[in-house]
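Section handout 9: paired folding examples.
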Amino acid sequence: MKLHIFKYFWLFGILLTVASCINQNYGIQAPQLNAVSNLQYTLNGDSVKLSWTLPKSSSTLSVSIMYNGGTILVSGNPTSYTFGVVQTNVDYLFTVKAQDTNGNLSLGQTVKFNRSGAMPVTNLSAAQNGSNSVLLSWTLPSETLSNLTLKYGSTTVTLPGTATSYQVNNVAVGTYLFGVVGTDSQNRISNTVYLNFKVGPTVVAFLGTDPDSLSISNHEQAAAAKWLFANYPAARYVTFSEIKNGTVDLSQFDVIWWDYDITTGSALPAIATDPTVLTSIQSYYQNGGKLLCSAFAINYLWNLGRLPSALQANVENDIGAGSYNPDIWTVNVDIDGKQDNSTHPLFKGLTLTTQGDGEKTFPVIGAGWKENHNCVLTQIPAFFGLPNNNDAAYSDFCNTYTAKWLGGWGGISDYFMAGIFELDPTTTFKGTALAIGIGGIEWDQLGASPGAISGTEGFTNPYQANIVTLYTNALSYLKSK
């Protein structure tokens, strides 16, 4: 009997020792705030409503909701939250935690669900087709759909399940939310795929100093205007004098294009920098108007106040009548072989060649007389205190100026120069601007042989099609913004 009693005391001592060790080294403090309770979800069309009961607390509570795509914070003693769009056939996991003003966080409560339904369409996109029509297009899912439903405003259109596009006509200027829903053979519906789209003016203005388009004195500008008016019948020639006199309303234009490619210098004409003119164009740009600046017109972005004066010292303006050159000149769209812009809409349809150093280039001008009127940003890394091959030069430029650095001269394999760039909207300038300043991008190359500057009306740059494609893309892209 004594032996058994001894064993019991011995085991009891071990348990006390273990418990002591656990309390000393591995103790876990209970949560200071209880978890939410009664966590439920209710699917309602494209959204899910989460609801719960908050724990008792002397302070105001907030709730963090962690799910597949991130974390949502809801404050003010919330007891529900509605989330959307819930995609069909996707597993969702929502974990809800309460938090008080002292930072105490409760344990999480979790719900999991999957919304069964038809597979949705993908790649929903829109393009303004004419002044008051919108062409919508999408990609069908792999499964067969019995029909599609298009909704916008109070309008509902039923389409066959094989449809991949639909044109909406007689659409007034404004912003629209388009939604497409698919229905399968079991009469199940997909989640709605939404697209916000702005319908606005579609007319392109060609800006100039000459009295009309037929009087344009510079051969480069004349060639650009001739191409524009032949391919965009609604385009209009606008003079700076009309803007100064107030005889033209700039708000009617979707894009204003100024191609200022001359041989006598890069200084902007006085009428362009007239205070009344500057105020009008600046207001147009700030209110969402789009600008396409070619050659020396890029300098205008500083006059308008979109870029700081400190950076203007880095603009290289190459002027003069030019000279004969037998080489093929190219544009590189993969900056330093690391910043690949080949999928940007500006370069759609251009055949790109990958060089040994990683550059992706396309030719813009062949043998002949080259004016080479560069208007490009140079020494960008040095401007930020960096060497030419430092990747931070690219991010610093893009982030500082809310810009996209899209292209440079072929053969430049670092971050020294930006010859094509895009200025994205800001809180002050709500419009988008594209700058194309590489000197090899000419609208009218003169002569195929040395000295052949005049009498060469029949000569065509062998890569003229690339110039046309580039500017067609530029106008289409800006019109979509």
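Moving on to protein 2 of 2.
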Amino acid sequence: MTDGECVAFLQWALPRLGLRWPGFRRVRGQVRKRLARRLEALGLPDLAAYRARLEAGDEVEWRALDALCRITISRFWRDRRVFARLADDLLPPLAREARARGAPLACWSAGCASGEEPYTLALLWDRVLAPAAPGVTLRVLATDVDAAVLARARRACYPPGSLRDLPAGWADACFTRAGDEACLAPRLRDVVELRQTDLRRDLPDETFDLVLCRNLAFTYFDEPGQRAALARLLGRLRPGGVLVIGRKERLPPAELLTPLGDGLYRLPGVSAT
């Protein structure tokens, strides 16, 4: 399979999955390797034969292809500037509002992959924010459509490279070595609830003070899918809450949101000061 053949196939297939080719341009190598393995498993000679199978209406294979197109690149403290702004400016007033309600500070990581993002929130709370927010607990819901990456998140053990961006001393304080991996302390794992959910179809019942949906919907979904995802996310965000998307992503028009820079947005409402 040449790169050109892969690109042509993805440009044909992705719109039929509600996905957009530009989001996959830089990560197509990951999908290309998966497609090659899938062709071998099916005993098909090339992408032309695979396309013919899909065009024949094989719904099972369309679902399999959708799974092959899930991108799972992540690491702890990814985009450190975003987490610094959350720690310094945005989470402290949200924590005060949660305390005034007598409720936990509720966060949702949508598209959590192997858990690095929601566990980063748990680390941030433990190392920085909790001492200044007595009486407030943190609760993080982490969702992903892929059962395999959620299984890795439940293990909470990672190669050293996944931790390389953490602030100095955090890895030693919050992880233990297990062979070639570093495993997150149980007290931090317990903060995060992992749940299999497809953002395109399902929603949690809860509402949240902070919602993170980074490098997922607004990179890979097509325009109707992005609008639908934004409506779903906002429907679960409390007034005054914060939405976080990828720093290089752009939202569909959303008059309700106040942009704060770096992929951060606030939903208008009253927050504690």
